[in-house]
Design brief:
It is a single chain. By secondary structure, this protein is an alpha/beta fold. The chain folds into two domains: 233 residues, Rossmann fold, CATH 3.40.50; 161 residues, Glycogen Phosphorylase B (Rossmann fold), CATH 3.40.50.2000. Helix content is 42%, strand content 14%. β12, α14 and β13 form a beta-alpha-beta unit. The radius of gyration is 22 Å and the shape is globular. 41% of the residues are buried.
């Protein structure tokens, strides 16, 4: 069963510590890319909204997007140029499995970008008097870092990872099996890489989303390790509907995410076909990916064509609107380190049905959703079918779980709350550095 309260071990700090100067460093910063690219954006925008001196160093591939959102902050954003190596890696990426690309050419690409970011960080520290550098991404605990030796405290994370498929539910295709074996082998050189690229070893504090991720950090870490959830929710975007929950008619379930193997939408469809309710529910699938054609064929085989709709990829604002129009989110993913969509649905006052594995298990409990134990494929199909049948047949249960989820997000998982916690970390590190400097024999 998922924990009943978030594992946050850090205090909430001052809203805007006076005189603090912060540099956010990330390869990609975007509200449109999906995944972890949005994390550095939230830190930067909220710090600036609070009047804190902050700067952002990131790749220029998202220059137009970021400048269109916050044109007044153009002077505080440094965009790293798109090099010939960036372009070459992008062209070659179409020939590789995404996971294989990430640990091969993608890793080389990230290194050259972060090498340029390190140079820019040194310049900004000297010119702007930056007090602290924060590298929120990549979120992988195993990824080496070039952000070190800057002369100011460095914060990394929160990171999230170090997980595998549930026992007995690893995807069985030969292609994916070979990919998994390759990825397993790719972990062995990390000990040496962390010595050559010692950013994580030398960071002043490493933030891990959970104990699982903490165990994946490299050996020999010098700084403090603390727990802080990776994801947050922008409550201005993800909000409840103005109307009360509908009590009549078919329930409307929604899935939001990529259509890739480990998201297990095929399991969701098998479960949806078994749902029992007075009015047969509807299912909307938002997202796209390589599994779409296979999923469409599965829908035809199951005879669900009149009850399942594909909406394709949608911008964030439209995803929020569609969540508000639904009755419950379903997320059968077998490999979900973070699961920000769970928090977004909770913020929209939707109950959530999710696999009790990875990130969703960090957010959900019986008060706001239903988690399904992934003991086998058959059990997962049966568990999702039963959970959807319960919610489809009980509007009052949906309303109660949804309201509890909204309250839980507001209390624990808003981005404003997360930035409060991060500011407490920044302030503590800068104060500690100041005290050490005052006690140094060379201090006058």
């Amino acid at each position: 069963m998922a924990m009943s309260s978030p594992k946050e071990t850090l205090p909430v700090g001052d809203i805007a510590p006076e005189g603090l100067r912060v540099l956010i460093v990330a390869e990609n910063t975007s509200t449109q890319f999906g995944g972890e690219a949005i994390l550095p954006w939230h830190y930067f925008r909220i710090l600036r909204a609070r009047g804190i001196e902050a700067w952002l160093v990131t790749h220029e591939r998202t220059r137009d997007e970021l400048l269109s959102i916050l044109p007044g902050e153009a002077g505080r954003m440094t965009f790293l140029p798109d090099t010939w190596l960036d372009k070459l890696c992008w062209r070659l990426s179409r020939f590789l499995n995404p996971q294989v690309y990430y640990v091969t050419l993608g890793f080389v690409n990230r290194l050259q970008t972060l090498s340029a970011a390190r140079r820019e960080a040194r310049r900004l520290i000297k010119e702007k008097g930056v007090d602290i550098v924060h590298q929120p991404t990549p979120v992988s605990p195993r990824e080496p870092s070039l952000i070190y030796g800057l002369g100011v405290p460095v914060v990394m994370g929160p990171m999230n990872g170090n997980m595998d498929y549930p026992p007995g539910l690893a995807r069985k295709s030969r292609k994916l099996s070979l990919v998994k074996q390759f990825l397993g082998l790719s972990r062995y050189p990390t000990f040496l890489l962390h010595r050559l690229l010692p950013g994580k070893l030398q960071a002043d504090i490493l933030l891990a989303a959970n104990e699982r991720t903490k165990k994946g950090l490299p050996s020999g870490v010098r700084g403090e390790v603390a727990l802080l959830v990776e994801n947050g929710v922008d409550l201005d975007v993800w909000s409840p509907p103005d109307r009360p929950p509908l009590s009549e008619g078919p329930a409307r379930f929604i899935y939001l995410g990529r259509l890739i193997d480990w998201k297990a939408v095929d399991i969701l469809l098998d479960a949806f076909a078994q749902v029992q309710a007075p009015a047969l529910p509807q299912l909307e699938i938002i997202g796209d990916g390589p599994m779409r054609s296979a999923l469409e064929a599965q829908i035809d085989r199951l005879g669900l064509g009149d009850r399942v709709q594909f909406a394709g990829w949608q911008p964030q604002s439209e995803c929020a609107r569609r969540l508000r129009a639904a009755d419950a989110l379903v997320l059968p993913s077998l490999y979900e380190c973070g699961g920000a969509v769970v928090l977004e649905a909770m913020a929209c006052a939707l109950p959530v049905i999710a696999t009790d594995w990875g990130g969703p298990a960090d957010y959900l409990d019986d008060s706001c959703g239903i988690v399904v134990t992934p003991s086998s494929r058959e059990d997962l199909v049966r568990g999702f079918a039963d959970a959807m049948s319960r919610l489809a047949s009980n509007p009052s249960l949906r309303a109660r779980l949804g309201q509890a989820g909204r309250e839980r997000v507001v209390q624990h998982f808003s981005w404003e709350h997360k930035v409060d916690q991060m500011l407490a970390i920044y302030q503590r590190l800068t104060q500690t550095r100041g005290r050490r400097a005052a006690l140094s024999p060379t201090h006058t």
